[in-house]
């Protein structure tokens, strides 16, 4: 399986705090409105769409898309995170179908079943990100969209995403990211092309530590999002 057991253990140990907006997952809570807006704009709205959230964790994005009217299936290989995600549904009263299955396995089981496939902040945590992108292609319907977010690999990204976020600002637990697993946009574009996905564009996400404000812009040198379409 395309799974890093150390990564699963790392996030599994924090799973109980997934929905605490002031915990280690605060950055995810803070950027979620931006991610949601970006996806909604690119896919033309959520209402009635079959959406798959790959690497859903505790379900922050999954629930947000369901609240917008999407029919959401969300998958992850962390049983601890999925337990928290399922438990939170009792509080939110939102409908999400959570499953412990890899994207590759689900692609064999349910090919071309989803209008939209999202994979956010996950590619940099698996041994073979290209395999995930290939699975996303298999899972999305022809003309459907896939949306990814990850971190660029360059000195600036190391400075901001690791030294800054993990060691200076303490936005994330130390050891959250491995610089060697960061992904350049050109690499993501190559893997998408090899998977027969047409990249439609890249968008950057920036953070101001003084104002504690995130925003989307054209700077893809650190955090970035990309959306692609499966040809008809």
Task: Walk me through what this model shows.
The protein has 232 residues and is α/β, with parallel strands linked by helices. It has a single domain (5-230), classed as 3-Layer(aba) Sandwich (Rossmann fold), CATH 3.40.50. Helices cover 39% and strands 24% of the residues. The protein contains 8 helices and 8 strands. One of its GO terms (molecular function) is polyprenyldihydroxybenzoate methyltransferase activity. Belongs to the methyltransferase superfamily. UbiG/COQ3 family. Keywords: Methyltransferase, S-adenosyl-L-methionine, Transferase, Ubiquinone biosynthesis.
Tell me the CATH topology: Rossmann fold
Q: Give the mean pLDDT.
A: 96
Number of domains: 1
Number of strands: 8
- How many helices in DSSP terms? 8
Summarize the SSE layout with pairings:
Elements: H1 5-12, H2 26-43, E1 50-54, H3 60-67, E2 71-75, H4 79-92, E3 96-99, H5 103-109, E4 114-120, H6 129-139, E5 140-151, H7 155-168, H8 185-194, E6 198-208, E7 213-217, E8 223-229
Parallel strand pairs: 1-2, 1-4, 2-3, 4-5
Antiparallel strand pairs: 5-8, 6-7, 6-8
Helix pairs in contact: 2-3, 5-6, 6-8
């Amino acid at each position: 399986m395309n799974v890093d057991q150390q990564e699963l253990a790392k996030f599994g140990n924090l799973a109980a705090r997934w929905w605490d907006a002031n915990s280690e997952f605060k950055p995810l809570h803070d950027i979620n409105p931006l991610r949601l807006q970006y996806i909604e704009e690119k896919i033309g709205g959520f209402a009635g769409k079959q959406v798959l959230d790959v690497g859903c964790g505790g379900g922050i994005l999954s629930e947000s898309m369901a609240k917008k009217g999407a029919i959401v299936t969300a998958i992850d290989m962390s049983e601890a995170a999925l337990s928290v995600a399922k438990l939170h549904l009792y509080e939110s009263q939102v409908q999400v179908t959570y499953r412990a299955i890899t994207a590759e396995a689900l692609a064999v089981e349910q090919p071309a079943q989803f209008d939209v496939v999202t994979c956010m902040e996950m590619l940099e945590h698996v041994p073979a990100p290209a395999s995930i992108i290939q699975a996303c292609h298999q899972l999305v319907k022809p003309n459907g969209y896939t949306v990814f977010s990850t971190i660029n690999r360059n000195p600036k990204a190391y400075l901001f995403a690791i030294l800054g976020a993990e060691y200076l600002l303490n936005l994330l637990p130390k050891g959250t990211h491995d610089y060697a697993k960061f992904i350049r946009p050109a690499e993501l574009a190559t893997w998408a092309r090899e998977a027969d996905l047409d990249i439609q564009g890249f968008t950057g996400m920036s953070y101001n530590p003084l104002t504690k404000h995130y925003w989307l812009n054209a700077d893809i040198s650190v955090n970035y999002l990309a959306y692609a379409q499966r040809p008809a």
